[in-house]
Amino acid sequence: MGKKIIIYLTLLILITLSMLEISRAIFNYISQNFTIRESFYFVNDVNQKGTHWGAYKQFYPSYKKYKHMVINFKLTELLTSFSRVMNVNPANSNFKKEYELVTMLYDLSEKSQLFKRETAIYIPKTLDIYWDISCDSHMPPFIAPGITGMAMIEGLPFLDKNSCYTHLLEYGYADYYSAGKQAEYIEMSRDEICERAKKEGFVRVIEITENNEVGIVTITHECVD
Amino acid sequence: MLKTKVNIIPEHFAATISIVAGIMAFLSRLGFDNNGLLIIKSILISLFVIFSPHILKTWLIKRTNDQWYISKAFLLLLCLTVLVLAGRFSLAVNIDISYFFLLLGATVFLATLITYNKEVDVRIKFMIYPLFLLFAVFVTSAYSEGFYYHPLMKEKIITGAWAHREAIWHANIAEMLKTYGVSSTGTDGLVPLYYHTFSHFMYGSISGLLRINSMTFYSIVVPILFIPLFFLNFVWCVKEVRKYFKEKFNFNMVDESDIRYWLAMIVIFSIQHRLGSLATSHGTAQLLTFILIAIVFSAINKFQARKKSIVTTSDMFLILLILLCYLCISFSKLSFLYLIGVSYGYLFIRFKFYKTLLHSLIILGFGLVAIYMYIYFVVPFQGGVSTINYSTDIGLFSYYKGEVLGYLFYIYPSLVYIIFKIYCLKIRSFSVFIKNIKESNLIDIELLLILMVASFIPPYPWFIQMQMYIAYILLLSHLALFFSELPNEKQYMKT
User: Which of B94, B123, B313, B332 has CB atoms 3.0–4.6 Å from B284's, for a disulfide?
Assistant: First the structure.
């Protein structure tokens, strides 16, 4: 009898724990979705976006708020928030320039492999929308190659820039520094771009920059003699 | 207990995860640009990989039944290889061939569905499918834990909503491998990155087949395509290991048609999991390890059934396959090279495998893979100061002191298994325990103990998960033995 009770009690505890963990994971997922949508209403400040301390002021409080709503089944509040976050328009939000830029990178990713193999991306450090997209100063260099499938030139970040996530030598940066490379230019001229492109074995460079009249633009530099 | 003629419940389990992950990705992106076609494509390609092994096996089994290559895990590996190669081909010639696989997936799925309906008791579905649904929602959600990956990845990047460097970095390497065939981050030209990048190569290639970038692949397609394969191979692994122990300890099977099997699996995975790391190299290494274990145990089971000790040509191919898997696993995650090497090394000495040619060739191959990886990856990796050296930066003693308590959360499944097994085998004294050790009846326990120690020795935190999954496989493969200890459940032991 005692053995029976212990066995069934253990099974009950295990199943309860399991259900709690499953619920937690599902609630987290829903809360994240709400928070990411709401983030379009956040203040667009480099020190208040990204990971670690960059997430303390806006991301975490919002995430906690939604998690609390979901866990406590506050359906009325959730529905109110739902209609708000479902109607978010990135092109008309506090992050419309970032939206424009990232959408442009997604469009570039659709170029053919042959084109990509010969092409590099250059984004001058003056384009704050790109370089200040996160409080982690070492994250932006991965965005353009990660989306477009094209390598960058002069894409290493400046080491003196404040960052919410350290690990400044990890993620392959040490390999670049060991190869004698480092961030040099704030902005490069066409000749400098092409000189670097040739050195790296690319025949063209797509420069992504900001134009006061049009907004974010791409300039293609053909670097063949 | 309900029985099926042809057991493809694991395939249906994986298909459920794939479909649910697809639906969740679609729902998550409502209101933003939503690529429904990509989701349908991914689901159908996933169904192609999930169900093709069954179709192929049904066809092959008519010709031979005693060869390792009819194991579903091997056939799935072939399908995955076809996908990767098709991706490379699609990228090279710039032609979209994904629709061919989409059609194949739909055909294979429908063909299997029609046959399955004729063969399986309807009652099973009503009991098990709600559990599959729950588990599918759970694993898809758990993939996004830790804020690394989410179907709203593009939006995360735009607003900086906890878009972590790590997640973008993996997509970055996959894209560089895809475009230039070079392992690099491409931040300033293509400086080589000495890092285990097999998973990036695989993901990059398949994203090429789907004509999407790796960022989209990691955030949307991985839960649809790779998480189901991860669990499918896990279940196949359990199945093969169970067959082996069933013969050894003479217990009946608790197979996939038993609802308690799935309940146990859900409990095990939900209480302690690291599903957030499935997209990274670790997930690929673990998936390939499951495939390797399933193939090896299938071969052992077939070998025992053959009752002949003659080494055939197919056995030699098996050795080659094992070595190739070991190489790919090591390329996916270097820690697995060490852990699999240690495990096999232990068995090699323990069972005096050095007396047989087959095993001597395997250990020689393992040695060559280890030397290659050390020279071409470990040495340049350390030279490049690419990562924290935990032993010197934090201090070796402080590291172990800090890790020891947390380590208990990883080894408790192993400890539970060891205690359960000793209890169920009625080992009540130390002398009986030693006797069983000498008779190699507790080799699984020995191996777990070795893994527990070996995982803890390297001063890096990413060595500790593998033994946890091995413990899960052993726990689930011994369910019948454990159930036999429950009141009124003696039918699990053969008389």
Answer: B332
Confidence of residue B377 (pLDDT cuts 50, 70, 90): confident
For the segment B412-438, what is each residue's pLDDT rounded down to a tens digit?
A: 999 999 999 999 888 989 999 999 999
Q: Pick B158's closest partner by Cβ from A17, A54, A98.
A: A98
Q: How many CB atoms lie within 10 A of CB A10?
A: 10
| Residue-wise DSSP of B254-303 | --TTSHHHHHHHHHHHHHS--GGGGGSHHHHHHHHHHHHHHHHHHHHHHH
Q: Are A123 and A101 in contact (CB under 8 A)?
A: no
Picking from B422, B225, B187, the residue whose alpha carbon sits closest to that of residue A182 is B187
Rounded Cα distance between A141 and A118, Å, is 19
Q: Where are the domains of chain A?
A: 2-91, 96-222
Mutate to test the interface with B, among A115, A163, A175 (most CBs of B within 10 A): A175
Q: Which of B188, B260, B269, B409 should one mutate to test binding to chain A, selecting the residue with the greatest count of A CBs within 10 A?
A: B188
What letter represents residue B273's amino acid?
A: H
Question: What is the model's pTM?
Answer: 0.93
Q: Do B215 and A39 touch (CB under 8 A)?
A: no
Which chain B residues have a beta carbon less than 8 Å from that of A112? 94
Cβ contact A59–B161 (<8 Å) = yes
User: 């008309």: which residue's tokens?
Assistant: A92
A100, A136, B123 from A161: Cα distances, Å: 25, 9, 63
What SS3 state is found at A42?
coil
Model confidence over B82-133: pLDDT tens digits?
999 999 999 999 999 999 999 999 999 998 888 765 555 666 677 889 999 9
Number of H helices, E strands in chain A: 9, 4
- What confidence score (pLDDT) does residue B281 get? 85
- The rounded distance, in Å, linking the Cα atoms of B318 and B336 is 20
- Is residue A93 helix, strand or coil? coil
Interface test with B, best of A18, A122, A136, A223 (most B CBs within 10 A): A18
- CB proximity under 8 Å: A 54-83 to B: 54-55, 59
State both tokens at B187. 């931040």
Q: Which of B251, B239, B229 is nearest to B7 (CA)?
A: B239
Whether B138 and A22 lie within 8 Å, measured CB to CB: yes
Q: Residue B348 contacts by C-beta under 8 Å, 6 or more apart in sequence?
A: B354, B359, B363
Contact A51 B186 (CB under 8 A): no
Chain centroid to Cα A125, Å, comes to 17
> pLDDT (tens digit, 9 = 90+) per residue, B455-475?
988 887 778 888 899 999 999
- Strand arrangement, sheet containing A215-222: A151-152, A119-122, A204-211, A215-222
B479, B417 in Cβ contact below 8 A?
no
Q: Which residue has the higher pLDDT, B381 or B103?
A: B103
| CB within 8 Å: A150 and B179 | yes
Range B403-423 burial, b when 16+ CB lie within 10 A, else e: beeebeebbebbeebbebbbe
pLDDT band at residue B279 using 50, 70 and 90 as cut-offs: low
Q: Which residue has the higher pLDDT, B142 or B396?
A: B142
Tell me, yes or no, if A142 comes closer than 8 A to chain B by beta carbon: yes
Average pLDDT over residues B175-181: 96
- Which amino acid type is present at position A166? T
Terminal alpha carbon distance of chain B: 18
Residue A84 at interface with chain B, using a CB cutoff of 8 Å:
no
